[in-house]
TrEMBL record:
This is phosphatidylinositol 3-kinase. It is an enzyme of class 2 (transferase). GO terms for biological process: cell migration; phosphatidylinositol 3-kinase/protein kinase B signal transduction; phosphatidylinositol-mediated signaling. Residues 840-956 form the PX domain. Belongs to the PI3/PI4-kinase family. Keywords: ATP-binding, Kinase, Nucleotide-binding, Transferase. Residues 981-1102 form the C2 domain. Residues 281-457 form the PIK helical domain. It comes from Ornithodoros moubata (Soft tick). Residues 107-270 form the C2 PI3K-type domain.
Length: 1120
């Protein structure tokens, strides 16, 4: 680097030598006795005047010029040694000892410094830009305190290209008012003039940022920077906010020389004495209730927004009254007028008096908005009590907080290192998080230092663990790249070959997986491994655990995908789930481990006993995405008893509600049916979060994700238990709205977590992403308003047919990937294989009946009586002819030499769903079964036969199948029959008085009965009595053909609270009819003076809502 830098002193020295040499005269010899003690300045003046005439004077001039060059070179080396970390230096001459230190607060001068020269300019800059300019900023956190600029100058060339500014820049900020964490940012701009030579109108030259650097004005020991420094410049592509203020150490980067004022002593930032803090306690009069309400209203809108001037005055003037509200501390700190030394005692006194925030809320004080070291120490002090499990949940943000520390010696760094000694899991997760952050050049040095410290303090055992992991991951990376370069027909063979080597290596030296240090493996189950046919060809690696009788560990290793987005999304979903569980709401959320182990590399845990929604739907054909029954029938197939199936439906309903909320809040896109999975236990979960925060997938300029979240008719079919709406769907809506409001109650935490991640360089995680989260959480809205909003989102998602169409398009696109050779011998309607040992030996089989069914379409099913050795009573199973034909075909494939009684395969001319055809096929089935039982033992009692006759849910339900029903009774008979009502008609309301308005949320009604139709077209009307002229009449929308309608509509009355408490609320339910008069279904009256309207909630408490009985038209109204 030194060979390419010529400082101004060197330039002057070289010029002096040139001038001496240009005036040289012919001399025969030089007097060797000339004195080096001649007047140097006089000689230099003579050189400049060109008046050197004799040899002696010429020799003295040459010596003087060489001494000047020597001094310039010493200056260059001295500046270099002070600017960069080197292991050499120049000897320091003995000088008079300086005074110990001087306080910066004693200075009355403004801060100034000199921009001397810019070196190592890129040739592209010199060719493209005519002038260059340096702009300087004094920053404190995110605030710019002062700005200064140099003149616009062009580049010059001596030995190298450089720009000579030699200009003092004065910042309009007194040194005594500088905060301790002040940083100086220097930006180099290139100025380009018009290419056509014409002056632009108006004449404003274009200015482009070329490079920049940063420097803290005080070091970690409180001493102010002095003297000359070389500062390496970062490329303009490097985000200034993505790391600490520092210079670039790269060899070839542009260099700016900066000259800071030098003093005769060290200049220090004074410490704040403890006595100054303790004497700040004021006397507090009573606070006006109006002011308190104003403060709380501001907090409710957005707890982290920068307050306006008026809000700052409110918070700062009344700061001592709100010390018991931990969430208000960030607002108060944002309202501080200045962070100079004079104001620090008041601020630090607040930190001692303020009620400690919870560890999660304390993360807010680690944002770049709060660079003060003592504030960050207070945050770390409150975080220290966090448990290891909760710490791991928020560890990504704590590692990101290292970026915002002014110095390496920071409270966050020491806290993380201390906690790594208490838990192997914390140390292990921290290691991989630090490795991920090494990709950013601004954080590379700091993260490397943290990794070295972590490996030193955790000892040899931990170092051995991570070294073995690194070695194993390197082997997998090489295999993944090799598979990509291999021909498709040879890939699986090549993969298994390479994995045999990995298996041998793991047998010799065990290791734990990056997913979890508890996942210790001792080998690979090579036969179970494969790869996925997506663009990046992820590898499916199945490991053998070191624990005895443990299941195989299934993982996916990816090269080519950035898994940091998946890590962040899964972290947020886990945190949401913990908030829900804390409030007593268990939504059966399934997540999985995911770790990015390098640049676009990582490992993902596979969830077992799960299938993608695409495979479930395509079991019903390519258009299965448009059908209602695929999910329901798949769950029935895997849950053969009624109890298991109902538990699966409950799990599905709860998990579907949770993921609807999570995917909406996080803006997760690219939700095709291969990115949604379903466990056999009913748990639904999402995978592949490469598109989130509203970044929708495009298909030929068409936005594929048009619904707020994925909620399709086949999902609602499972929730309702059929085609007709039921109370279960109302429960689902309540679950979604409750979960959404719980997330909103913790909006401060989610906004903070995303703000801490904005500098992480994760694609899509920017300040706009924080705004997206704030918008999706409806900050400033009440719970009732949020409930109504999310209900509209449910309706919008359910009514959008584009989601199903998107699924259908994806089905077509994935046609070439369908089919799995491993499932070829499994029956399509039974999820797994059963044997004689699992079910009991079959003694006899016989067809006893043939029944007609009508759903999903007309068909015939055969009742087969199965008698087993272990059972005293026979059992009947219900199978269709198509299922018998499937059994026959697969038996022929398994036993090609055996001769079976054939079943007709060809289509019958004419209608095939008639009773005559069914009876003819019944004879074929009887002969087939009779002959099957007489065949050899390995055939008649093979696993295929026992799997076929294993009892399913439809068999246990007796004569009525779960997915079928007998032919419906004629409509005329229904009209003449007596209708039996089940349950009492009720309506659910939520009421709250806020901001001068009575808010009434009409939520659900259930068990509504209408005399003239099967299901009413219901709507709700309300009045506030006494109301003679009916001016208070309000009504909801009409919900068509639904005995259990969900309105979720907000009705607003603008009345003072005193007036509202004197009113009687009448709520009535009606059936809408376009032709006839609307039919009255029931009503109730509520005395508002009995209700506590000042407290809002949508939960089932008497205080906030009335669960009232809706009387029929012939009964008097009552209230529960």
């Amino acid at each position: 680097m030194l060979s390419n830098i010529e400082i101004i002193e060197i330039i002057h020295a070289v010029e002096g030598i040139k001038q001496v040499c240009s005036q040289a005269v012919e001399v025969s010899s030089l007097d060797s006795d000339f004195s080096a003690k001649q007047d140097v300045e006089e000689i230099r003046a003579q050189v400049r005047r060109g008046s050197i005439l004799n040899c002696e004077r010429f020799a003295e001039a040459v010596l003087c010029a060489l001494l000047q060059l020597q001094s310039a070179l010493r200056t260059l080396i001295s500046i270099y040694c002070c600017s960069f970390s080197v292991n050499f230096g120049l000897p320091v001459p003995d000088t008079q000892p300086k005074k110990e230190y001087r306080l910066v607060t004693s200075s009355e001068d403004t801060f100034l410094f000199s921009i001397s020269t810019v070196h190592q300019l890129k040739s592209q800059w010199v060719a493209e830009y005519d002038h260059f300019q340096v702009s300087c900023e004094l920053r404190y956190g995110a605030d710019v305190m002062s700005v200064g600029e140099t003149r616009k100058l062009s580049a010059s060339r001596n030995f190298f290209d450089l720009v000579v500014f030699e200009e003092w820049v004065e910042m309009k900020k007194f040194m005594k008012l500088l905060p301790r964490e002040t940083c100086l940012y220097i930006m180099l701009y290139g100025i380009e003039v018009n290419q056509d030579g014409r002056a632009p109108e108006p004449p404003k030259p274009e200015r482009s940022l070329l490079a920049w650097c940063g420097l803290p004005l005080f070091n970690s020991h409180r001493q102010m920077v002095q003297g000359s420094r070389f500062l390496g410049l970062w490329s303009a592509e490097v985000d200034q906010k993505s790391g600490p203020a520092q210079s670039n150490d790269a060899f070839s980067c542009p260099i700016v020389r900066v000259q800071f004022p030098e003093f005769d002593c060290a200049v220090s930032f004074p410490e704040v004495r403890k006595d100054d803090i303790e004497t700040r306690k004021p006397r507090l009069p009573c606070l006006d209730s109006v002011v308190i309400q104003d403060i709380l209203d501001v907090l409710e809108k957005d707890p982290l927004s920068v307050p306006t001037t008026e809000e700052r005055r409110y918070f700062w003037d009344n700061r001592h009254y709100i010390v018991e509200v931990p969430q208000l501390l960030p607002k108060v700190l944002l309202s501080v007028q200045a962070w100079s030394w004079v104001h620090l005692p008041d601020i630090y006194f607040l930190l001692t008096q303020w009620k400690p925030a919870s560890p999660i809320h304390a993360l807010t004080l680690l944002l770049p908005l709060f660079p003060d070291t003592e504030v960050r120490k207070a945050a770390v002090k409150w975080i220290k009590n966090i448990g290891s499990d909760e710490l791991c949940d928020h560890l990504p943000q704590l590692v990101q907080a290292l970026r915002f520390e002014t110095w390496e010696d920071s409270p966050v760094a020491w806290f993380l290192l201390e906690r790594s000694l208490t838990s192997v899991r914390v140390a292990h997760q921290m290691y991989w998080l630090l490795k991920q952050n090494m990709e950013n050049p601004l954080t590379l040095r700091r993260m490397k230092l943290m990794v070295r410290m972590l490996l030193v303090i955790t000892g040899r055992a931990f170092r051995a663990i991570v070294e073995r992991q690194e070695e194993h991951l390197n082997d997998l990376c090489i295999i993944a790249e090799t598979i990509k370069d291999t021909r498709e027909s040879l890939r699986i063979e090549k993969l298994l070959q390479e994995l045999e080597i990995v298996h041998s290596s793991l047998e010799e030296s065990r290791t734990c997986l990056p997913l979890n240090p508890a996942m210790e493996v001792c080998g690979v189950d090579v036969k179970s491994c494969s790869y996925f046919t997506s663009n990046t060809l992820p590898l499916k690696i199945v490991y053998r655990s070191t624990e005895t009788a443990a299941k195989l560990l299934q993982t996916i290793y990816k090269v080519g995908d950035d898994l940091r987005q998946d890590m962040l999304t899964l972290q947020m979903i886990r945190i949401m789930d913990k908030f829900w569980l804390k409030e007593g709401l268990d939504l059966k959320i399934i997540t999985f481990a995911c770790v990015a182990t390098g640049s676009r590399k990582g490992m993902v845990e596979m969830v077992t006993e799960a299938e993608t929604l695409r495979k479930i739907q395509t079991e019903h054909g390519l258009t299965g995405s448009f059908k209602d029954r695929p999910i329901s029938e798949w769950l029935q197939k895997h849950n053969t008893s009624e109890l298991e199936y109902q538990q699966a439906v409950e799990n599905f309903t709860l998990s579907c509600a949770g993921y609807c909320v999570a995917t909406y809040v996080l803006g997760i896109c690219d939700r095709h049916n291969d990115n949604i999975m379903l466990k056999t236990s009913g748990h639904m979960f999402h995978i592949d979060f490469g598109k989130f925060l509203g970044d929708s997938q495009m298909f030929v300029n068409i936005r594929r994700d048009r619904a707020p979240f994925v909620l399709t008719p086949d999902m609602v079919y499972v929730i309702n238990g059929g085609e007709k709406p039921t109370k279960r769907f109302q429960t689902f809506i309540d679950l979604c709205c409750r979960a959404f409001n719980i997330v909103r109650q913790n909006s401060n935490i989610f906004v903070t977590l995303f703000q801490l991640m904005t500098a992480s360089s994760i694609p899509g995680v920017t300040s706009d992403a924080v705004g997206f989260i704030q918008k999706s959480l409806l900050l400033g809205s009440s719970e009732i308003e949020a409930t109504a909003h999310f209900t509209r989102l449910i309706e919008e998602s359910l009514s959008s047919r584009f989601t199903q169409f998107n699924f259908f398009i994806h089905n077509i696109a994935q046609l070439r990937f369908t089919g799995d050779h491993n499932d070829g011998l499994l029956l399509s309607f039974v999820p797994r294989t059963f044997t004689q040992e699992t079910d009991g030996r079959i003694i006899s089989l016989g067809v006893v009946d043939c029944q007609k069914r009508y759903e999903p379409e007309k068909h015939y099913t055969y009742v087969v009586r199965v008698i087993r050795e272990c059972q005293t009573r026979s059992m009947s199973v219900f199978r269709t002819f198509a299922e018998f034909l499937e059994l026959y075909q697969k038996l022929v494939r398994v036993f090609p030499l055996a001769k079976f009684c054939p079943l007709s395969r060809g289509s019958i001319v004419g209608r095939s769903n008639t009773r005559e055809v069914a009876l003819k096929r019944k004879v074929e089935v009887e002969h087939f079964l009779r002959y099957l039982m007489t065949m050899a033992e390995e055939v008649s009692h093979c696993s295929l036969v026992y799997t076929f006759f294993h009892p399913l849910l439809r068999d246990q339900e007796g004569m009525t199948m779960a997915t079928c029903k007998r032919k419906s009774v004629p409509q005329q008979q229904v009209q003449n029959a007596t209708v039996i009502r089940k349950g009492t008609s009720r309506i659910k309301l939520s009421m709250h008085y806020k901001g001068g308005n009575l808010l009434i949320m009409v939520m659900h009604a259930e068990n509504l009965f209408c005399e003239r139709k099967e299901a009413p077209d219901a709507y709700v009307k309300t009045y506030l009595h006494k109301d003679v002229d009916k001016s208070t009449k309000k009504k909801t929308k009409v919900v068509s053909r639904n005995s259990h309608p969900s309105f979720m509509e907000l009705l607003v009355y603008e009345y003072p609270l005193e007036v509202v408490r004197e009113k009687l609320l009448e709520v009535s339910v009606w059936d809408y009819d376009r032709v006839q008069e609307n039919e009255f279904l029931g009503a109730t009256a509520i005395d508002l003076w009995k209700m506590n309207l000042t407290r809002e909630t949508v939960s089932r408490t008497q205080r906030s809502f009335a669960r009232v009985r809706v009387a029929s038209s012939c009964r008097c109204t009552t209230m529960v």
